């Protein structure tokens, strides 16, 4: 076979690439580069301003709602009674033999008027004192909010606490006091309910202080709620009859209080 020779040698050697070199590729088109958002000082400044404006709107909205809530008289009264100047005060007395049984109990002595935040206040005091079932809530109060007194009674019953009427004396004992109006409602939540000798329980007809469209219907609603509550707590319906007889305080004698099952454990002083 004859070789293909030219003037400058074989034809494969005259090839620009030769048999061992890949042919040149066409140049690839440049790939598009992603656009990067400007992050200069002006854009950063506007983002900061937008964040501040958004935060200010949130704070302003919250502040307006809080102002509207606290501008209502009942809301302000609740806030004041809960945080600023509670209408009730308390004292914790350990190891009190309130029924002369030889068994000491922790006594949480509560005194003062039952205000618009009394139930929340009482719940906190019970939790702080770590009262156990069978411990005693000692009450001394002229009354106050009926709705709060009902909730207080429910809290006392839920914790399995007893109630008594009296105040703590300097020696760590208990002496007689009085419990009237809404205080009797809170007292009814206890079990048992001690009747300290010479202490007094006073009841009367409950009325609403706000303007109502139908006073008769409202009075029936209030009477019905008291009757349901007292029945639940094991107190005779006769107490509601005693309440409805007068708008003035009617002081129950020991015999009547026991007959209504309001006092379940009479306690005589030594």
What does this structure look like?
- The chain has 270 residues and is of the alpha/beta class.
- It has two domains: 54-85, no CATH class; 87-267, 2-enoyl-CoA Hydratase, Chain A, domain 1, CATH 3.90.226.
- It contains nine helices and 13 strands.
- The strands form four sheets. The chain has a six-stranded mixed sheet, with helices on one face. A three-stranded mixed sheet has the order 9-11-12.
- β4 (105-112), α4 (118-129) and β5 (136-140) form a beta-alpha-beta unit.
- α4 (118-129) runs parallel beside α5 (146-158).
- The protein is elongated.
- The termini are far apart.
Order of helices and strands: EEHHHEEHEHEEEEHEEHHEHE
Alpha plus pi helix count: 9
Q: Outline, from the CA principal axes?
A: elongated
> Which stretches are poorly predicted, pLDDT < 50 over at least 5 residues?
1-15
CATH architectural grouping of the largest domain: Alpha-Beta Complex
Write a brief caption for the model.
The chain is 40% helix and 19% strand. It has 270 residues and is α/β, with parallel strands linked by helices.
Keywords:
270 residues; 2-enoyl-CoA Hydratase, Chain A, domain 1; three-stranded mixed beta sheet; disordered N terminus
How are the elements arranged and paired?
Blueprint: E1 5-6, E2 9-10, H1 11-14, H2 41-71, H3 73-84, E3 88-96, E4 105-112, H4 118-129, E5 136-140, H5 146-158, E6 162-165, E7 167-168, E8 174-175, E9 178-180, H6 182-187, E10 193-196, E11 200-203, H7 215-232, H8 238-244, E12 250-252, H9 254-259, E13 265-267
Parallel strand pairs: 4-5, 5-6, 6-10, 9-11, 10-13
Antiparallel strand pairs: 1-2, 3-4, 7-8, 11-12
């Amino acid at each position: 076979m004859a070789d293909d020779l030219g003037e400058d040698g074989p034809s494969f050697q005259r090839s620009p690439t030769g048999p061992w070199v890949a042919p040149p590729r066409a140049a690839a088109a440049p790939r598009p580069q992603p656009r990067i958002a400007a992050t200069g000082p002006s854009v950063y400044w506007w983002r900061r301003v937008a964040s501040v404006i958004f935060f200010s709107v949130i704070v302003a909205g919250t502040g307006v709602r809080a102002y509207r809530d606290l501008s209502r008289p009942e809301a302000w009264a609740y806030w004041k009674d809960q945080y600023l100047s509670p209408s009730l005060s308390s004292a914790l007395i350990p190891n009190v033999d309130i029924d002369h049984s030889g068994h000491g109990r922790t006594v949480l002595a509560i005194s003062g008027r039952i205000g618009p935040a009394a139930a929340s206040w009482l719940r906190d005091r019970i939790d702080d004192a770590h009262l156990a079932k069978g411990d005693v809530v000692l009450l001394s109060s002229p009354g106050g909010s009926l709705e709060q007194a009902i909730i207080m009674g429910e809290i006392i019953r839920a914790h399995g606490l007893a109630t008594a009427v009296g105040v703590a004396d300097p020696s760590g004992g208990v002496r007689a006091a009085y419990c009237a109006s809404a205080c009797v409602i809170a007292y009814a939540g206890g079990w048992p309910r001690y009747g300290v000798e010479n202490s007094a329980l006073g009841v009367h007809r409950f009325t609403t202080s706000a303007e109502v469209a139908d006073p008769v219907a409202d009075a029936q609603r209030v009477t019905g709620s008291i009757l349901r509550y007292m029945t639940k707590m094991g107190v005779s319906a006769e107490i509601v009859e005693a309440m409805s007889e007068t708008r003035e305080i009617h002081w129950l004698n020991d015999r009547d209080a026991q007959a209504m099952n309001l006092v379940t454990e009479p306690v005589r002083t030594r």
